[in-house]
Amino acid sequence: MASRLNPYLSFGGDARQALEFYKEVFGGDLALNTFGEAGHQGTPEADQIMHGMLEAPNGFTLMGADTPPGMQHTPGSNFSVSLSGDDDAELRGYWEKLSAGASVAVPLEKQMWGDVFGMCTDRFGVPWMVNISEPQS
């Protein structure tokens, strides 16, 4: 899989509705994963979206999620730029450069869903997410 760069939007509890709306606008395939599916069953956020991805037929990709518990949702600054793919060396290289002098919110390391993931806000105030998945065979 080639690396991709796309916007990642944060929502205050209405990610499902927003991503379904964007699917109506752009078409394509929408995949949604809830916090409940990730082990948060029986919690207030169980049905909220932990990760959603819309892949439109024209090549557009839009990702989004509800703001996780403990993090503040701030409309107007509710986006990140997402870098993702399976080229470990390439994506780690981007991470090293982006995170230099940055505020690192989540260190680049293996996460509960199995991928290597990190979040930082670069020295210019732009929030980044880097996700490295296992190479697909």
TrEMBL record:
Entry's transmembrane regions: none
InterPro entries: Glyas_Bleomycin-R_OHBP_Dase (IPR029068), Glyas_Fos-R_dOase_dom (IPR004360), PhnB-like (IPR028973)
Domain of life: Bacteria
Residue intervals of the Glyoxalase/fosfomycin resistance/dioxygenase domain: 5-130
Pfam families: Glyoxalase
Coiled coil ranges: none
PANTHER family noted in UniProt: PROTEIN YJDN, PROTEIN YJDN-RELATED
Protein's name in the database: VOC family protein
Organism, as annotated: Streptomyces durmitorensis
